[in-house]
Amino acid sequence: QVQLVESGGGLVQAGGSLRLSCAASLSFFRINDMGWYRQAPGKQRELVASITSGGTTNYADSVKGRFTISRDNAKRTMYLQMNSLKPEDTAVYYCNADGFPLGGRNRDYWGQGTQVTVSS
Questions:
Q1: Are residues 3 and 96 in contact, defined by beta-carbon separation less than 8 angstroms?
Q2: What is the pLDDT of residues 3-20, one digit of tens each?
Q3: Per-residue 3-state assignment (H helix, E strand, C coil) for 43-83
Q4: What is the pLDDT of residues 56-67, one digit of tens each?
């Protein structure tokens, strides 16, 4: 089964850190771009950070300098190191990957989401 599984969310005080992980199943034949999105209550889902298969990164202005996205292609895993967390970072964080299974079509895949809550 082609799937993405996130982990690492939780409750943290403002100024603290969390590290999210997103593991892609072995059913993926190829994984291209990957990214982290988040959705706060009553708001639209927004891009937090993205990374290409070659390692080129892109960040939302609101997280630049605080968050770092990375990936380990051999482990099929993507990470989001979140430092200096703020209450406004509270949201459900979703992993996204563009890829395809052997014999399948290229498309976007989403994880189930992991809750990040930052208390003030």
A1: no
A2: 999 999 999 999 999 999
A3: CCCEEEEEECCCCCEEECCCCCCCEEEEEECCCCEEEEEEC
A4: 999 999 999 999
